[in-house]
Structure formats: structure tokens, C-alpha cells
């Protein structure tokens, strides 16, 4: 925990938008503290919380902490390379901005801000079905290497969204499969968190005691599920179902095969947590999977994805990505050493977004990139392509 955290503040303009940092945060935990200060409690708890007693959330963090390095010495690390190869392309770093919903509740135009930060860093950005900016708006205003994440709420609507993503130039489709029903999130239930925000005496007090956040929301308008508000996709029932994570629980392997046949680009399945399901995805022609427990937000007692990666990476030929609990560049080094091709950033970059918008998100990526490079040097590996299990101790 950084010592100067309590001394920090931001100068804001009349719209609640940061004009810059008075003291520069040096780690992700610093940005978490700043996000907690700026956001109302109900919004911060939505960002920060997990399922039930949050054991899976904390297990994700603890799993990375339990992995130690086995540094190699007397290696020439004077020239280092942080790039990785994924789907035939070279990424400057192994980071991908994960799909996250309701980013407009954290910062006005949050989805566009995140996409712009990703574009500046040269890494992919995954737009969530539950975004507060439309598929087309993000493509037009941000650009970059865009991927689209699909929740199947209704079959016809899913086909429409996939078609829009293809038309707008999204390169990769990411199907999330771990939300057949909504996980029980105690913090959200206690706070009555919902979109649109419910105006209760408690929520109003929460907002007015966080004027920097409230001014931004008033100026730019309260967030809505933009992909469900277009003329060809307006469906109040679908919006409500998405907010409650009431997806099409009948979606199964045959439907995945149909999606694979229909989508011409790269297809990733996110939310896989067993070697058996990884193998089945490969057999159906899926291009990669994300080992993920939804950041510990869906089911409480489930393995940390990084631990699963350690078990199965040598058994599978398809690309494996991983998320959940990544707070340091060193965590990405551990993941790649265990066989991951890249890592997805969720809360880590959202803390930066919530604290300082695009500037904060971009700075989080700079912090993680610098930590990644430093760790490569300190473990004696100048190129991520050379990382393997010899560099870690489980």
C-alpha cells in the first residue's frame, strides 16, 4: 500500500472532469483508493465487489501471490522486448482490456475512454454487450483493435448485435458463457444498485456527498444500455434481463457450433473453467478461450483461473488467455510463464477509469507495462516468448 495515498486529490472542472493529477499514483492499489474516494459507495461496490462472501474474488488475488519466481542470473537483459504474438499479430504488451459493463457509471463516456486508452497503448479493447456506448459509437469515436463481447439474452437480438459488430469492423467475437443466471452479489443487493439508478434517500445522499462524480453524471446524462436503445434493438424486457444477468440459459454446445459457423472472424469463449470444456471448444473450431471465473462475481467457491492455467496449459494446443486478480505487471509474467498468450484487465484498468477517465486508464496501462518490463529483467528473461515454467515456483 502506498504511503502518500491519503494526500492525493484531483483538481476538477465544473463538469466533474479531472484536469490532472496533483500527485501521480504509482500502483493499481493507489488508483483503487482514488476511485473509492470519487465514486458513491453503491457504484464503487459494484466495481469492487464479488459474489456472496467474495471468497473467489480474494482467491484470485491470493493465487497470484502464492506463485514465486525462480530468477535466472547472468543473463543479458540490457535489451528487452515486451511484445507477444496473438492470432498472427504482434501486440506491444500482453494486455487486453476486458469486457466490462456499465462503464458510464464510473466515468462519463467510459467505454469510449477505455477504448481510446487501449488504442493509444496499441492493445485490443473488448466492448461489452452491456456497454453504455453503442457498438458503432465506439468504433467511430475510438477505433483501434476492437473486439465485441456477446451476452446471449435473446437469440434474435444476439444475431443482430453480432451483425452490427461485424459491420462496424470488430475483429474478434468473445462469447461469455458463465452467466446462465446472475450471481448473488451481496454488496449490490444491500445498496440497491440498478440501472437506471433508483432515487432513494440513501442513494441521493450517496450521490450528493460525492459531488465530483455527481457533476459528471448530471452534465453527461445517466448511463443506459446503449446497444438496446437503438431504433432496431429497443427492448425494455431485454434491458431488464441483461441488468439481472438473466441470459438465455438454454444456450448450449450446439448453439456455440452454430455461432462458430456464422461468425467469420476469430471466436473466443470466455468463462471456461475445466480442461474438458477447453478441449470441446477446440473441437468446435473456437480460436481461443479465456480461463475466467468472471472476476469472482458469479460463483463464490471456484478455482482461481491462474491455478487452472497451471494445471492444463501443457495439455492444450489452442491459445489460452486468463483474467481475474491481475494487479501487477509481474502477474502477467507469471501467467505467460504458465502458458497464457495474453491477460485480460478488468478491475485494474477500471480503477484508473473511475479515478481519472481516459488519462487514468492510460496511466494504469503504463504502470503495468513498466512493471512487466522490470519483472522480465529481474527474472532474467528479455523476451516474453522465452517464458516458461522454469521461471516460477508453484
Automatic annotation (TrEMBL):
Keywords: Flavoprotein, FMN, Oxidoreductase
Positions that bind glyoxylate: 46, 151, 185, 294, 297
A cellular-component GO term for this protein: plasma membrane
Gene3D superfamilies reported in the protein's UniProt record: Aldolase class I
GO biological process: aerobic respiration
Highest taxon in the source lineage: Bacteria
Listed cofactors: FMN
Signal peptide feature range: none
Record-annotated FMN hydroxy acid dehydrogenase domain positions: 20-394
Catalytic residue positions: 294
Residues at which FMN binds: 99-101, 128, 149, 176, 270, 292, 323-327, 346-347
Catalysed reactions listed for this entry: (S)-lactate + A = pyruvate + AH2
A GO MF label: FMN binding
Similarity comment: family membership: Belongs to the FMN-dependent alpha-hydroxy acid dehydrogenase family.
Protein name as it appears in the record: Putative L-lactate dehydrogenase
